[in-house]
Amino acid sequence: xxxxxxxxxxxxxxHFRLLPTxxxxxxxxxxxxxxDMSQVSDNGSKEKNEQDNSKGxxxxxxxxxxxxxxxxxxxxxxxxxxxxADNATFEDPLMCAHGVKQIKSAFYTIPKVFSESGIVExxxxxxxxxxxxxxxxxxxxQHYKFWGRNIDMISLIVLLxxxxxxxxxxxxxxxxxxxxxxxxxxxxxxxxxxxxxxxLATHVLMGFGKDPFS
Length: 214
Hints:
- This protein is of the alpha+beta class.
- Helix content is 25%, strand content 35%.
- It has helices at 9-16, 60-71, 100-108, 110-113, 185-205, and strands at residues 24-26, 31-32, 39-40, 46-47, 84-92, 95-98, 116-130, 133-146, 149-162, 165-173.
- The strands form two sheets. Strands 1, 5, 6, 7, 8, 9 and 10 form a seven-stranded mixed sheet that branches. Strands 2-3-4 form a three-stranded antiparallel sheet, with no helix packed on it.
- A hairpin with a 2-residue loop joins strand 9 (149-162) and strand 10.
- Helix 3 crosses helix 5.
């Protein structure tokens, strides 16, 4: 949820059927998943359970995951964006960022819109695609508080990593592939243009990726 949201965002998302189907609104910040998913208690403590399909090899996720958790949290720092390559992209159903500056603008909106935010449960899998090229899948649950309302969302974060740097970051709400020109030739193009427009507007509002925190 990286877009610069307005008060009627949820209504707009439902209108365009972009809101995850299993999004829920809760009154308590206490969550659990069955099986291998991690747990979070009322005091916000987390226990992670990470799975690795590339045993015996270097795990990029060990270095990247702490920064991803910070980015989705309430106060991302400039150093957290060092995981990205200069030409990296970030995309979710509302926004498409090109380059580190735009990615900064996308994530710096979070503490300005939400009083609480973060990934509260997650499960990590990492696979080797080719030498130096890995794919990291983060099956996760995100929690936000907007105007006193708790918003919980299931997501699949997909990271493409080359030589230790993230070159592609997708946040797939409800674990569904992003709609684009490849899977929806006409509507997909319109949605792509909408995501770029949303990103450019956010980029301007956020000072073109200026770091607000040290």
